[in-house]
Amino acid sequence: MITRSGRVIPATEVPKSSEVPKISEVPLEDAKKVVKFIRTSEYDIVEQLRKQPAQISLFDLINSSDKHREVLQKFLAEVHVPAQIEVNCLDVFMSSLLARDSIIFSDEDLPEFGKEHNMALFVTIKCREMMIPRVLIDGGSGVNIIPVTVLKQLHIDESQYQASSLVVRAFDGARRKVLGEILLDIYVGPAKFETTFHVLEAVGSFNMLLGRPWIHVAGAVPSTVHQRVKFVVGDKLITVQGESDVPICNEIDLPVRYV
Fold it and tell me: Which of 2, 126, 233, 255 has the fewest CB atoms below 10 angstroms from its CB?
């Protein structure tokens, strides 16, 4: 090499090596561990990606997927929205459509006076073409109860009872013998239920009591807070509002109301 000043620098030779560097062999067991580690790492990444929400809009989804678009069109075609529905009730209506087999309660279900109350849940039902008010829905009762005085108003006498040896215990702990059982068709809202009642010679705050046997068979969810009971019949969510100071149905001429 010659620099600008004219100085000559001898070239340095790189020693040649005839030996090719060898690749060290990895034991088979160690190789399997490395592959397993790599696969596990990739699996963790995939799982993490699955947990992240997809950044895609509903419009993009129905544009890119024919199946999603067909399902959405079918759903909208089956939906019937009442023309007289109020704007503030539309969100509740849509929630009931999306939660077809679910029963939920929201603040929209609360009575006008809110939840600062201590009211039991009473509804009005229909039995033998007569409207019966003051029907208590009570999940604390293991039987459905009807007082004998109410049966007389329904023109049902003792000859129609079925024998029963059941003894029930009242709230005060007193034991009451059941006079018999009776099978009645009742309408709670638009839904019909074939219900077995136990007949008692008792005075209470109700004209009928629907306990756990009816609640479980109907798949009903009562809420004393919201003063209503909900259940699903077919593909429809039924909501029956509790009684308020203003009766929601015509009352039949029953004996002195139990208070």
Answer: 2
pLDDT, tens digit (0-9, with 9 covering 90-100), for 85-97: 777 666 666 666 6
Look at the block and give the residue holding tokens 């007389």: 152
Looking at the DSSP assignment, which residues form a beta bridge with residue 195? 184
Is the CB of residue 150 less than 8 Å from the CB of residue 208? yes
Under 8 Å between Cβ of 147 and 203: yes
Question: Residue 101's pLDDT is what?
Answer: 58
Distance CA(183)–CA(77), nearest Å, equals 41
Residue of 107, 136, 148, 120 whose CA lies nearest to 208: 136
Domains of the chain: residue spans and CATH? 108-241 (2.40.70.10)
| Residues 144, 153: Cα–Cα separation, whole Å | 18
Tell the burial category of 146 from Cβ atoms under 10 Å away from its Cβ (0-12, 13-18, 19+).
Answer: buried
Runs of H (alpha helix) within 26-178: 28-51, 58-64, 66-78, 87-98, 148-153
Is pTM, for the whole model, over 0.85?
A: no
Task: Give residues with Cβ within 8 angstroms of 40, minimum separation 6.
Answer: none
| CA-to-CA dists, residue 5 to 2, 8, 64, 230, angstroms | 8, 9, 74, 103
For residue 249, pLDDT over 50 is answered with no
Half-sphere exposure of 26 (CA within 13 A, CB side): 8
DSSP structure class, residue 9: -
Residue type, 246: V
Vertex 26 angle, CA 23 and 28, to 5°: 145
